[in-house]
């Protein structure tokens, strides 16, 4: 075949869309056909001819596509409009042979018979429809409505009975019940409800709470209160504890509330709240709270609030079992309003959530659950369980990695309260043997001190200092114990051992305590020796000031001269100190001393030694070495330093001479600048 070769395949300059084509056709009205001319029929022959033509048209349409039911319905309705009922029936029957499942076809057929008052024909059609399509509820509704409109109550009831055999949906049962109630047949309606509930219970067609509630409200509406209560009780028994629904119990409680049975209402609410999962009982909580506010006392309202808070805490601990703060709040609530068994159960649930990591920071909150549990058992229950709680806690803690001294001490104190001193000592001894800690030693020593067992205290202090020789507080307490017992030599020996340790955590506190001890014993020579020994180790300004104040407080004639001599030595020693603020502090202390006890000459001398305070600037550098600007700071210039350095003035004059030399050299290198300056 010949094919046309398209040379230019580029798109046309003007593009025409389908929308433009449709718009142009609409504007030109190309699709509109002129209306057919009106035809007036004047005699029978013309009418028959018109009928023949119309029937031929309908038959042609049906012949073209028999499955289009709308053509059949139009054909039948046209025959019906001509009062040709037999022809219309014939058309409907032919259509049903084509598609008997078409619901609209059956409805139009039956409506035609009812419109033309052909009741028996209509019944026949409805019977055929519900027999052929029993699951189409519309047929049943139309059929029962027709019979009821005709006053055939028995026939309508019979149709309903046939319908119920098919176990229809919920609305069908309620339609049947409402039908009986319209004719005041309460007993029949109750029977239908019973059948409906029986279907629910046995066949499980509609196992829904609302059906039982509707039945009970039906009985309540017709003043059969005993029957209504029995329905509610049967519903509770039917659903059991596995399928409990809060709506059933709310409806039951409201029914009893209307009957003024307030105790029964309270029992129903509590029964439901104890068994329904908390997340599904929000509406139940709300209605119970409203009921207690209306009819209950203060205790009842508090019970509701406690129950709601218990639900909240249960949700929190369920979401995160290791949220120990939530457990604490929950236990505090339960302890305030619950029996011992319930509290014990919650405690057991809480302590079962052991931290997954054996690190002390994860156990710090958890261990207080055990402590509170033990205290609760001791205060509220028997002591035997308290001992078991302490022992279980001690066995649970991984003592090789860490321990909690408070647990051991609380256990020992509990045994003492039970008058079991050997067990308390054994517990503390075991703790020191397994996992020695400062707190354990201190607690054990304090216990023996209260019992006035001083020999045991000495042994414990010796063990303590073997374990932690750097602990200055332990040395001080040991020495204070010996001082209290009157053994001064042992106390002094302990202090000597302490200051001889190579490593101490607070040496200044230890030295101060030793010095205060010697001052209390009025051993001033020993005190001076201690100060001298201390100054060999440190030249701190506070040591010098304390030494001077000690000499001043010695209360002897030469105390002033000794004090002034100490200040002189301190000033000489502090000249090489880089911290000028400490030197200023020393001079100020010396000046205060001279102002109170010195002469005019000594006052004038100390005034000459006071430094001059000047402001200076220094460059700052950032961490990366770049310039970070300048900062101002205060510095001190001491007269003694300037007097001992006579070359400072010479150095300043040399710097000035160098600056003048640089300016003269710059002027020689740029003579034009001098000419311009002279001309100007």
Walkthrough of the structure:
The protein is mainly alpha-helical and 680 residues long. Among the domains are: 91 residues, Alpha Horseshoe (Serine Threonine Protein Phosphatase 5, Tetratricopeptide repeat); 36 residues, no CATH class. 72% of the residues lie in helices and 3% in strands. It has a two-stranded antiparallel sheet with strand order 1-2. It is elongated. The C terminus is likely disordered. InterPro entries: HAT, HAT_Syf1_CNRKL1_C, Syf1-like, TPR-like_helical_dom_sf. Its main location: nucleus.
CATH names the topology of one domain as: Serine Threonine Protein Phosphatase 5, Tetratricopeptide repeat
Rg measurement, Å? 55 Å
Within the largest sheet, what's the order of strands?
Answer: 1-2
Mean pLDDT, rounded to whole units?
77
- CATH architecture of one domain, please? Alpha Horseshoe
Overall 3D geometry? Answer: elongated
Number of strands: 2
Give me the secondary-structure category: mainly alpha
The first-to-last residue Cα distance is 108 Å
Give the uncertain stretches in residue-range form.
673-680
The top-level CATH class of one domain is: Mainly Alpha
Number of discrete helical segments: 36
**Sheet with the most strands, sense and barrel status:** 2 strands, antiparallel
User: What percentage of residues falls in helices of 4 or more residues?
Assistant: over 70%
Percent strand = under 5%
Subcellular location: Nucleus speckle
GO cellular component, one term: precatalytic spliceosome
Function: Involved in pre-mRNA splicing process. As a component of the minor spliceosome, involved in the splicing of U12-type introns in pre-mRNAs.
Pfam families: HAT_Syf1_CNRKL1_C
């Amino acid at each position: 075949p010949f094919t046309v070769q398209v040379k230019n395949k580029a798109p046309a300059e003007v593009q025409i869309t389908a929308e433009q084509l449709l718009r142009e056709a609409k504007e030109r009205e190309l699709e509109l056909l002129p209306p057919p001319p009106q035809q007036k029929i004047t005699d029978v022959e013309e009418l028959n001819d018109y009928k023949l033509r119309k029937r031929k048209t309908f038959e042609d349409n049906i012949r073209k596509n028999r499955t289009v039911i709308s053509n059949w319905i139009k054909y039948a309705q046209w025959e019906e409009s001509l009062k040709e009922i037999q022809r219309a029936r014939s058309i409907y029957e032919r259509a049903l042979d084509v598609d008997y499942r078409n619901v609209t076809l059956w409805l139009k057929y039956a409506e035609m018979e009812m419109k033309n008052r052909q009741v028996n024909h209509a019944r026949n059609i409805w019977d055929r429809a519900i027999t052929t399509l029993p699951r189409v509820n519309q047929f049943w509704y139309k059929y029962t409505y027709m019979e009821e409109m005709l006053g055939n109550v028995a026939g309508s009831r019979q149709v309903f009975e046939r319908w119920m055999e098919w176990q229809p949906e919920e609305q069908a049962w309620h339609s049947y019940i409402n039908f009986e109630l319209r004719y005041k047949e309460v007993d029949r309606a109750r029977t239908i409800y019973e059948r409906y509930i029986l279907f629910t219970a046995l066949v499980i067609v509609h196992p829904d709470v609302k059906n039982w509630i509707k039945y009970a409200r039906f009985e309540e509406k017709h003043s059969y209160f005993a029957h209504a209560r029995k329905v509610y009780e049967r519903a509770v028994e039917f659903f059991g504890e596995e399928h409990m629904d809060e709506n059933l119990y709310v409806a039951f409680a409201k029914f009893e509330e209307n009957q003024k049975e307030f105790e029964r209402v309270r029992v129903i609410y509590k029964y439901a709240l104890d068994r329904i999962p908390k997340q599904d009982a929000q509406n139940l909580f709300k209605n119970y709270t409203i009921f207690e506010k209306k009819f209950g006392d203060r205790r009842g309202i508090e019970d509701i609030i406690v129950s709601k808070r218990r639900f909240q805490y249960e949700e929190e601990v369920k979401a995160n079992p290791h949220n120990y703060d939530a457990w604490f709040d929950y236990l505090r609530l339960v302890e305030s309003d619950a029996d011992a068994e319930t509290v014990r159960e919650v405690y057991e649930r809480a302590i079962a959530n052991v931290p997954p990591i054996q690190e002390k920071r994860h156990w710090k909150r958890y261990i207080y659950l055990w402590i509170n549990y033990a205290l609760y058992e001791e205060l509220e229950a028997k002591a035997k369980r308290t001992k078991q709680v302490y022992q279980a806690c001690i066995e649970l803690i991984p003592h090789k990695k860490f321990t909690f001294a408070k647990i051991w001490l609380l256990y020992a104190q509990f045994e003492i309260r039970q008058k079991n001193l050997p067990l308390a000592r054994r517990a503390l001894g075991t703790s020191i043997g397994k996992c020695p800690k400062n707190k354990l030693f201190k607690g054990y020593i304090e216990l023996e001190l209260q019992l006035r067992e001083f020999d045991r205290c000495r042994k414990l202090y010796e063990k303590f200092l073997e374990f932690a020789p750097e602990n200055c507080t332990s040395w001080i307490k040991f020495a204070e114990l010996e001082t209290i017992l009157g053994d001064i030599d042992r106390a002094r020996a302990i202090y000597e051992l302490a200051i001889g340790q190579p490593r101490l955590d607070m040496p200044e506190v230890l030295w101060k305590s030793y010095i205060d001890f010697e001052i209390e014993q009025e051993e001033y020579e020993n005190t001076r020796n201690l100060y001298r020994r201390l100054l060999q180790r440190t030249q701190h300004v506070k040591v010098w000031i304390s030494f001077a104040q000690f000499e001043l407080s010695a209360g002897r004639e030469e105390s002033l001269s000794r004090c002034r001599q100490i200040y002189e030595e301190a000033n000489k020693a502090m000249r090489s100190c880089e911290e000028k603020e400490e030197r200023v502090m020393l001079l100020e202390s010396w000046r205060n001393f001279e102002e109170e006890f010195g002469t005019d000459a000594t006052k004038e001398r100390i005034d000459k030694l006071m430094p001059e305070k000047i402001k200076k600037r220094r460059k700052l550098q950032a961490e990366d070495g770049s310039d970070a600007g300048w900062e101002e700071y205060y510095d001190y210039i001491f007269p003694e330093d300037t007097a001992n350095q006579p070359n400072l003035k010479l150095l300043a004059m040399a710097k000035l001479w160098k600056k003048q030399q640089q300016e003269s050299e710059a002027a020689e290198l740029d003579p034009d600048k001098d000419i311009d300056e002279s001309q100007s």
